Each structure stands twice: as C-alpha cells, then as structure tokens.
Amino acid sequence: MRSLLFYIKESVKRGCLTVAYRPVYYLMCIVVIPLSMTVFFISLLDKGVADHVPSAVVDLDHSETSRNLTRTLDCLQQVDVKYKLNSYAEAMNLLKQNQINGFFLIPEGFGDDAVAGRHPELSYYIDFGYFVPGSLLVKGYTTISMIANGALMQGTLSAKGISENEIASVLQPFVNEIHELGNPWMNYGIYLTNSFAPGILALMVMLVSCYVITIEIKQGTTRKWLNTGGGSIIVALTGKLLPLTILFTLTGWLMQIILYGIARYPMNGDMWTMLLAMLLLVVGCQAFAITVCSIVPNPRYALSVCSLVSVLAFSLGGYSFPVEDMYPGVAVFSYILPVRYYFLIYIDQALNGLGFIYSRYYYAALLVFPLMSLPMLPRLKRACKKPVVYIP
Amino acid sequence: MRRMLIDTYRVWRNEFKVIRADLGVMIFLFLLPFAYPLVYSAIYNPETARNVRVVVVDDNRTALTREYARHLNATQELSIIGYASNMQEARRAMAEKECYGIIHFPADFSGKVYRGEQSVVEVFCDMSLLLRYRSMLVAVTAVASEMGKKIQVERMEGLTRGMATVAEMPIPFKLVPVGNVSQGLASALMPGVLVLILQQCLILAICFLGATSRERARLNGGRDPMAVTDAGVMSLLIGKALCYFVLILVPAIFIIHFVPIIFTFPMNASILDLIAFFVPYLLAVIFFGMVIQMFIPDRESTFLMFVFTSLAFIFLSGISWPRYAMSGFWQLAGGIIPSTWGVTGFVGMNTAGASLSQQSMPYIMMWILAALYFIFALLLSVLGELRKKRVNGKM
Predict the structure, then answer these.
(1) What is the model's pLDDT at position A274?
(2) Which of A7, A8, B73, B287 is most open to solvent, judged by the fewest CB atoms within 10 Å of its CB?
C-alpha cells in the first residue's frame, strides 16, 4: 500500500502532463482568452459614457428663439446635433437609416407662441431600439425643455420685479441632490467589465475543467487515470485539476491587477478580499464542472451543459437585470451560479468598500460548491470504471 | 459545369445524411434555436426594475416630508421599506442589502419651503446595477416636479395675482418613443440577441461537423468515410452551405418571426423585407462558420474556442454599447462579423420600422462578407487539399 502522498503526486503529474502535452492550446484557453477579453472590454468601453449621441433638430420655426434653443442643445454633453433639418420626414428617414438615434422637433411659430403664452409643444422622437443612447437622449432633451421653460418664466417673472433667488425657488421648489455611490461618473466600463471579465474566466474554468475530465472518457483512459489516484476519484480529480486551479487563479489575479491596477477601476476595499474571491470563484467553478461531469459523464453533453449554464450566467447572474425583478421561477437559478456570488462580493468589497464581514455569506456560498460536488462523485467513478468506446 | 452541379447535389444530399446521424449537431440546429430565445426572453421579460427598495432618513419630521415620502412610495419604481433614525443606520441597512438607496430630508426641509427657498432632497444610490439607478432617478425626478407644482401655484399667487396659469408649464413637451414604445430593456436588447443566437447556433453546428469529420479522417487514414471524397472543392463548399441554409430556415423563421410575437417585441418590418434581408445574413454566417471550422482541432474544442465569442460579438454589434462610441479599431472589428450587420439591420427594420432600402448599408455589407468568407473558405480548403496531397505523396 503506497502512501496517499505518492498518489497525489502521481495524479498531479498526470494533470500537469495534460497541459504540457498541448501547451499552446491550453495556454490559449486558460490565459489568452480571459485576459484578452478583459482588455477587449476595457478598451471597448474606455469612453465610459456614450454621450454625444448623434441626433438632429427639426426647426420648423426659424426664429431667433428656435435657433437659440438649437445652439443650447448642441452644447449639452449628451447630445451631438449632427443635422439641422426642415421636415419631420427627413429626420425620420435619417433615424431609420441608423444615422441618428433621435431628433428634437420645434413647431412652427414656436417663438411667438411661447412669448404670447399660447403653450407651443416641443416634442422629441427617440429610437429606443438602442437603450443606452436612448436613455441619454431622454436626459438631454428633457433638460433642454426644462431650460426653455425656465428661461421663459424667468423673463416673465423678472419683468414683474421678482428677485433672482425667488425665481429659482418658484421654478423648482424641490431639488434632488443625487449621489451615485462608488461610480459617480456612471462609467459603463466600470459597470460592465467588472462582471463580464470574471464571467468569461468562469466560463473558461468550467469548460476547460470539464474538457480535461471528459477527455479521459473520450480516450478511454479513465482506468489509468483512476489508478494514478490509487483508485480514489477524489485524489485523481484533485491531481488532475490542481494545475488548472493554479493557472486559472494566477490568470484571475492578473485580470484583477489589470482591472484595479492598470485600468484604475474603483477599488474601495481591501485587495485581498478580491484576490480571495477570485481563488474561490475558480475552485467553485471547477466544482460545478465536476458536478456536471458526474451527472452526465459524456464529453459532448457535459460540455454542452457547461456552455449553456455559463453563457446563461451572464443574464441569470443579474449583472444588468436585477434578480429580484426576474420571475421567481427564473430567479432561483441565479443562486446556483458561482459567478453570482463573486459578483456580489465585488459590489460589496471593490465598489462599495463595505468590509469583509458584510460579504461573509457569499464567501461561504462559494465554499459550498466543492462540498456539493462530493455526493455525485461515486457516479463519476462508476462511469470511469466502465469506459465506453468513443466513436466520433 | 454539369459535373460540378451533380457533385454539388451529391454533397448536399450527403450532408443531410451526416447531420441526421449526429445528435449533437441536431441539438444545435433544432433544439437550441428554439429553446435559447425563449429562455432569454423569459429572463428579461419583466423589462424594468420595479419597487426598488429604499430607506428614508427624515431629519425634519413634518407633515410635508411625510407626504413627500408617501408620494415616493406610490411610484411604480420605488418602495420605501422603512425609516432609519440616522444616516448611520440607513447605511447599515444598505450594507446588509435591505435597501439599494437612501432618501434624506435635511432638518431645514420644510422651513425652506415656507421661507420660499429651494429645498433639497438628498438621494444616495447603489450603483451596482444601472437599471436600479435609472428607476430611482426616474421616481425622484417625477416626485420632485409633482410636489413642486403645488408649491409653485401657491407661490405664484403670492407673488403676482393672476399669474398662477404660468405655473402649468409655458412650453409643454412630450417624448415620443420610436419603435420600442415600452422603452423596456428586453425589447431593446432581445432583437439583437435573437439575431446573434441564430449566428452562434449555426456556427457551432458547422464547427462541430467540420471537427468531427476531421476526427473521423484521422482515425481512417486521412479520409473521412462519411464524406463525398471525389467532389471538387467548390462543389463541397457550395453543397454543404446549401444544406445548412435549408436546415436553418425553419429555426430562423421561428426566431425572427415567432419569438417577437410570443414576447410582444416590436415588429415593424414587412415580412418580404425581412426574408430578403436574412438571405445574405445566413449565407455570410455559413461561410464565416466554414472559415472558423478550419481552426477547430477536435469536436469538443468547439466549446472551448468558440462559446466565449458570443460575448465579444454581441458587444461589437453595438446593441448594448453604441457603435458611435467605439474606437475606429473596434468599429472595424465589428464590421467583419456578420452579426453586427444582421443586428443593425434587424433592429432598424423591426424596431424602428425602416424599409430594406433604408437599411441598404447593412444589406450590402452582408453580401460583401458572404462573398469574402466564401473566397476565404475556398482558399483554405484548397490549401488543405494541397497539404494533404503533399503528405500523401511523401508517404
């Protein structure tokens, strides 16, 4: 009877050899894809806010007032007035050709009607097929309409001899002072990259782990593999996956260094909390992959399930759509995903800087995944003992 | 020429046989395109964040602040879960995830109103999800102007007799949403995702077929026993492409036409325009897939090397982050992916209601891509054949 240490060493060797046998391939999947996608997101979203939305003004009035309004509109950060047009049809045509995301319509006789108190109506048409530019245009156009109202009322009131302070309080009795905690720039890159880059890593951890386990089944070498672990599936799995754990965790840490060190995304807590979360994420995802492989010990189906789950995780994880607003039957699935807990830890630790104690349950949840994979292991072992001949 | 047509037909028929025997590919072509759109739509169908939980810190404690809070609670977007006695307590509630925002009324809130000054409401928002932030913003802005209106009328009457009418907005304004009238996230995002799902399913299936054929060939001395071996490169390429084209038609119609019906996404395009539009799209995707196929070493690697591209492609398409905000490099990178033009055209036609002629740019781009990838795939196959011959010659 050889010692446990011997078997651990043997199975780790097998794990290392798997990677060393096709180094380019594995380095591509483990290091290059996650890191290049991180850089992709940072670089793609480096503007942070998608302002200067291409748009148009349809000026049917051609008065000093309307030209003034157009100029003010162009000064807004959100709006880029690319076209000054003379008809609704022209503007709609441009919108349908993807040239503009919306347009502002100043009606005929606007200047005169406004001064005369005949309530001319401003309208703005916004293409909500694109959510982000659409929302920005709403903000810009509403601002400009308020400014127009304010300017007009200010004129009327000051003519009556009312002081400027009083005018402000009449026009807007209540003001909201909004504090965007953690991301005051409303930077889209901070918001997205912090969830999507680790999401890609989690995806690759699941797929590669699943791949190295099931490739033994595909090649019919499961018995040999089991023997390296001295017949213990736990030792065999640990050995096989440990090199991947190390490589993926190092990649993950490098990713975090890129995010918080180089791209300077907000890091309001302690860095070690995030480093720990990354390690647990990698282990959690590997455990998830083991569970899938145990349930369906077949390379095709196990990999299919893993891809399905990890692609859906980008939506189910609640990175963009809040879990509490999903249908309850859908929302429950968000809690079986390791990335969900990493994302919650990121919000607490890096974005809001709350301190470790507030995320304790999320760390604990990530630790549950390895435990959850244990009960299914005998199934995997049984499948390993009875290798199936693989026909492509 | 005649021989080429016959070869093409033989390849076309044979490919059906290969696909029928392959359960994995059948799943990608027939199960995934039906299941995925439904799952995705079900996730996003609630459209917006409603009843975002907030806590109120009221340092003023007057009838006015209580009324203000009631108004906030009455909005669709917010739900006040309780009062905190001070900011410390409110912050703790936020840290414990009991709420995602804090509304603070300063001690001089009502005093300022009665003195005729501007009163400030402080709003603290959790920024983890932009959708929640947006909901909070909409609610507090609406309530501020609604509560303000009453005060405005009173003040106007105090200041100048008969001026109260001015208070009801001298210049009214209205927002007209085009296409996506609900202004919801699902109706904006999903049309793009649908077009992408179509592309990814098709490419996954094509990569699967290519890699499997290569694996079979490796086991059988360099020749895949299930393939038509005596046909020319051109016939092989066109025959296979036509086979995939025919197979994807039904899933494509389901995704493009029936999923929007089921989930009431905008449907403003004419059917004929859509059909004309998706012909070059599917062709471009098929030949794009046949190029990628050449780089996949074995069947299972398809997952490892291709699945992550979905994320890259959806962002490059501009449905989430607009293309005008991307750098030239990424605009170009997006331009060589069929889904970018497919998404742009489909959203333009089906959401904004454009005609095919108004979407001529994406339409032409897709034909160009289809031609380019066809030539590229042809070149790669010819090179592959040459290499095979050289290896065989050496043996």
Answers:
(1) 97
(2) B73
B43 → closest Cβ in A44, A303, A326: A326
Per the CB < 8 Å rule, is A114 touching B170?
yes
ipTM: 0.92
Q: Which of B45, B155, B300, B319 would you mutate first to test chain A, the one with the most A CBs within 10 A? A: B300
Of B219, B321, B324, the CB nearest to A44: B321
Q: Name the helix (H) or strand (E) containing B385.
A: helix B360-394
Positive or negative CA dihedral for B236, B237, B238, B241? positive
Instruction: For chain B, give every domain's residue range.
Output: 2-45+184-394, 52-167
Chain A residue whose CA is closest to B187 = A129
Distance CA B222, CA B86 (A): 76
Which residues of chain A are modeled with pLDDT < 70? 1, 387-392
Contact A301, B28 (CB under 8 A): no
Residue B165, pLDDT score: 52
Cα–Cα distance list, B390 to A235, A320, B385, B395 (Å): 46, 53, 9, 9
Contact A321/B at CB under 8 A: yes
Q: Over 70: is that where the pLDDT of B289 sits? A: yes
The alpha carbon of residue B2 is apart from the nearest alpha carbon of chain A, in Å, by 34
Residue numbers in B near A211 (CB within 8 A): 300-301, 303-304
Length of chain A: 392
End-to-end CA distance of chain B: 33
- Quickly count: other Cβ atoms within 10 Å of residue A249's Cβ: 19
Q: How many CA atoms lie within 13 A of A38 on its CB side?
A: 25
Angle at B365 between CA B319 and CA A312, to 5 degrees: 30
Number of residues written out for chain B: 395
Indicate the SS3 state at residue A87: coil
Cα separation, B186 vs B44, in Å, equals 5
Report the C-alpha gap between A42 and A47 in whole angstroms.
9
- Whether A319 and chain B come into contact, CB under 8 Å, resolves to yes
d(CA B353, CA A97): 10
Which residue of A121, A207, A300 is in closest CB contact with B172?
Answer: A121
What gap in Å lies between CA A101 and CA B359, rounded to an integer?
15
Rounded to two decimals, the pTM is 0.93
Q: Does A215 touch chain B (CB under 8 A)?
A: yes
Contacts of A357 (CB under 8 A, 6+ apart): none
Percentage helix, strand, coil, to 5, in chain B? 70, 10, 25
Q: Where are the alpha helices (DSSP H) in A76-187?
A: 88-96, 110-116, 131-159, 164-171
Q: In this structure, what token pair is assigned to residue A350?
A: 């890096």
CATH superfamily, domain B52-167, is: Periplasmic binding protein-like II (3.40.190.10)
By the CB < 8 Å criterion, does A303 face chain B?
Answer: yes
Contact criterion met (CB below 8 Å) for B198 and B33: yes
